[in-house]
């Protein structure tokens, strides 16, 4: 039976684990308004998402590793102070360049904050109990992704984009307070960092071809969804003429669609091979790409855009869950390092994709459709090439 102390502890883990993802997406409905206020292109504003992902991606393994010898509490305090500085820069940003710097700083800090959630749970719980709390954390994480743009849409409509960063700052200050009060859960510390050992573990994990192939597939599919987040807000608000609230609500509905087909994916695996489920996912993403490429021929409206985007959401649900499972199917040791590499690869591929996509102005759905098509083909090619190499004598 879960007692009051365990509930408080788990609430703390949820708060630190979800703040990074919420901060990544909550301001997305505000991107067109930020571009207008700073009198810059949509492409330049999109870089604020890209550099946030870069900040999170480049420091994830570093924070995770050093927390094993200086403790989780110190990492939480250091990283939450860094993210607070970044958030304050975003609040007061006088131009787009300062906003991008602030987002990069945010990403670096939130990488350490969010990354400690799983580690702290593992310190405290083991076996079935750990798996149970991890599943609860997964639900909370999914809800944070679903709700972030929805909440951001209302905040933008009523108060403007700067208030969003003010609230993130307050949330961040709460994390600092909780980190200060937090009682260290890492009881056995390694008092000297062995960087050569970390390097050898990374090399060992990366020698696993299945892990590399399917982690890269997962990263590419993640970048497809992030590309949608970065571009769709301009399509919906500027080209179609809907409000930030409408965009946030649409994204929330699509997230529920993703959750449903993720659940269905689990059921299908009892009847269809995991490889075939992934192939079905590629077909759906390719269908979405084709429709987005053809949409400029017709008069763009909400219904047509939703019909074009829905297959991507369904296909991503099939591919992402299955590819993530396949990537860890043959990992039996150094699981923590493998998880950090997998998470960092998603963020860094997302950074590259959005950075490239930001070079194109959002005047139609064509650039997004082409991005979906290229990424779908790339993911399929990586998987096909990897499977052929494994089949070779």
Summarize the structure.
This protein has helices at residues 4-25, 31-38, 42-70, 72-92, 96-124, 127-158, 161-181, 195-206, 209-239, 244-268, 274-294, 302-327, 335-357, 366-391. It has 393 residues and is mostly helical. Helix 2 crosses helix 3 (42-70).
Could you explain how this protein is built, in words?
With 393 residues, the chain is mainly alpha-helical. It has two domains: 1-181, MFS general substrate transporter like domains (Growth Hormone, Chain: A, Up-down Bundle); 195-393, Up-down Bundle (Growth Hormone, Chain: A). The chain is 83% helix and 0% strand. It has 14 helices and no strands. It has helices at 4-25, 31-38, 42-70, 72-92, 96-124, 127-158, 161-181, 195-206, 209-239, 244-268, 274-294, 302-327, 335-357, 366-391. Helix 9 runs parallel beside helix 13 (335-357). The chain is globular. The N and C termini lie far apart (53 Å).
């Amino acid at each position: 039976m879960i007692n009051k102390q365990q509930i408080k502890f788990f609430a703390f883990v949820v708060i630190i684990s979800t703040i990074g993802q919420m901060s990544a997406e909550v301001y997305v409905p505000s991107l067109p308004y930020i571009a207008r206020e700073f009198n810059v292109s949509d492409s330049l504003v999109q870089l604020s998402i890209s550099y946030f992902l870069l900040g999170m991606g480049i420091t994830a393994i570093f924070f995770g590793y050093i927390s094993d010898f200086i403790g989780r509490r110190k990492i939480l305090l250091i990283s939450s102070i860094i993210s607070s500085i970044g958030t304050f820069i975003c609040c007061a940003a006088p131009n787009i360049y300062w906003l991008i710097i602030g987002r990069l700083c945010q990403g670096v800090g939130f990488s350490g904050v969010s990354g400690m959630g799983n580690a702290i749970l593992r310190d405290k719980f083991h076996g079935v109990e750990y798996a149970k709390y991890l599943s609860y954390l997964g639900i909370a994480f999914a809800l944070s992704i679903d709700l972030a743009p929805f909440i951001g849409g209302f905040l933008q409509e009523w108060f403007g984009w700067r208030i969003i960063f003010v609230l993130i700052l307050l949330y961040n200050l709460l994390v600092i307070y909780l980190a200060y009060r937090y009682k260290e859960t890492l009881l056995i510390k390694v008092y000297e960092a062995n960087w050569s050992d970390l390097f050898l573990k990374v090399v060992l994990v990366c020698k696993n071809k299945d892990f590399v192939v399917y982690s890269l597939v997962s990263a590419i599919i993640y970048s497809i969804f992030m590309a949608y987040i970065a571009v769709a807000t301009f399509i919906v608000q500027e080209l179609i003429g809907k409000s930030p609230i409408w965009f946030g609500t649409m994204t929330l509905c699509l997230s529920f669609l993703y959750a449903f087909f993720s659940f269905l994916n689990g059921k299908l695996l009892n009847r269809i091979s995991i490889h075939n489920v992934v192939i079905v996912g590629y077909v759906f993403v390719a269908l979405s790409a084709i429709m987005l490429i053809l949409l400029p021929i017709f008069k763009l409206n909400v219904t047509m855009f939703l019909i074009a985007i829905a297959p991507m959401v369904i296909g991503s649900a099939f591919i992402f869950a299955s590819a993530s499972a396949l990537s860890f199917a043959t990992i039996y040791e150094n699981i923590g390092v493998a998880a950090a590499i997998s998470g960092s690869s998603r963020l860094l591929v997302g950074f590259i994709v959005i950075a490239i996509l930001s070079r194109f102005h959002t005047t139609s759905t064509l650039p997004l459709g082409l991005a979906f098509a290229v990424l779908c083909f790339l993911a399929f090619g990586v998987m096909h090439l990897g499977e052929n190499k494994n089949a070779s004598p």
